Automatic annotation (TrEMBL):
It comes from Zunongwangia atlantica 22II14-10F7. It holds the Pfam family Gly_transporter. Belongs to the UPF0126 family. This is Glycine transporter domain-containing protein. The chain crosses the membrane at residues 6-25, 32-54, 66-85, 92-112, 118-139, 151-170, 176-197. The lineage of its organism: Bacteria, Pseudomonadati, Bacteroidota, Flavobacteriia, Flavobacteriales. The keyword Transmembrane applies. Coiled coil: none annotated.
Length: 209
C-alpha cells in the first residue's frame, strides 16, 4: 500500500471510527463479538456504501486486508485500555469527530477521481463520513447522531466537502486541501458542541421534549 497523505488519513479515519464503535459497544455492555462487529461496521460502513454506489467492487476493505487487521488491532487496544478511555468523558465524541472529518475528504476525493459531478462528490463525502456512525447507532439502539437536532453532523460534512471542491477547482496543493478540509469538519463540530450551535428548530415549543 502506497503511504500518501490520502492513504494515511484514510487509515487514521478507519482507526478513529473503529475506536468510536468499540467504545459505543462497550457503553452498551455488548459482548466481545458485539464489540468487534460494531467496531467493524462503524469503520467500514460509510466507505462500503460509497464503493457500492459508484460500482467500485470488491469494496476497498475486501481488496486490502490491511483494514481488517487495523480494525482488529485498534479494537483490541480499545478493549484493553477501556478503563482509561472511560475516564475521558468525551473519548467517543472525539474519535467520532476525527473519523468524520477524515472520511469526508476521502469520500469527496474518490468522487472527484471518478469524474463525478461536484454535488455528487460532496454527497459521497457526507455518506462516507456519516453512515458508519448511523449503522453503529442503529445497532446500539440509539437515535443516530446525524438525526439529532442538537448535533451539527452532516452539515459539517457537507460544508467540508464544499470547501474541498472549491480548493480542488482552484488547483490548490492536494495535501493542503486534505488538511484544511478535514480540520474544517473537525473544528466545526467541536465548536458546534462547545457553543451549542444547532440547526433551526421548527417544532412548536409545546412539542419540545
Amino acid at each position: 500500500m502506497e503511504f500518501s497523505l490520502f492513504n494515511i488519513l484514510d487509515i487514521l479515519g478507519t482507526a478513529a471510527f473503529a475506536i468510536s464503535g468499540a467504545l459505543s459497544a462497550m457503553n452498551r455492555r455488548l459482548d466481545l463479538f458485539g464489540i468487534f462487529i460494531i467496531a467493524f461496521v462503524t469503520a467500514i460502513g460509510g466507505g462500503t456504501l460509497r464503493d457500492v454506489l459508484i460500482g467500485n467492487t470488491p469494496v476497498t476493505w475486501m481488496e486490502n486486508t490491511l483494514y481488517i487487521y487495523l480494525i482488529s488491532v485498534v479494537t483490541i487496544l480499545a478493549i484493553l485500555f477501556r478503563n482509561y478511555l472511560n475516564h475521558l468523558r468525551k473519548s467517543l465524541f472525539l474519535f467520532d469527530t476525527i473519523g468524520l472529518g477524515v472520511f469526508t475528504i476521502t469520500g469527496v476525493e474518490i468522487g472527484i477521481r471518478n469524474e463525478l459531478d461536484p454535488i455528487i462528490s460532496i454527497a459521497l463525502g457526507g455518506m462516507t463520513g456519516a453512515f458508519g456512525g448511523v449503522i453503529r447507532d442503529i445497532l446500539c439502539n440509539e437515535i443516530p447522531v446525524i438525526f439529532r437536532k442538537e448535533e451539527i453532523y452532516a452539515t459539517a460534512c457537507l460544508l467540508g466537502g464544499l470547501i474541498f471542491v472549491i480548493m480542488h477547482d482552484q488547483n490548490i496543493n492536494t495535501d493542503i486541501t486534505y488538511l484544511v478540509t478535514s480540520l474544517t469538519v473537525i473544528i466545526l463540530r467541536l465548536l458546534a458542541v462547545k457553543y451549542h450551535i444547532t440547526l433551526p428548530d421548527f417544532y412548536p415549543e409545546k412539542e419540545q421534549k
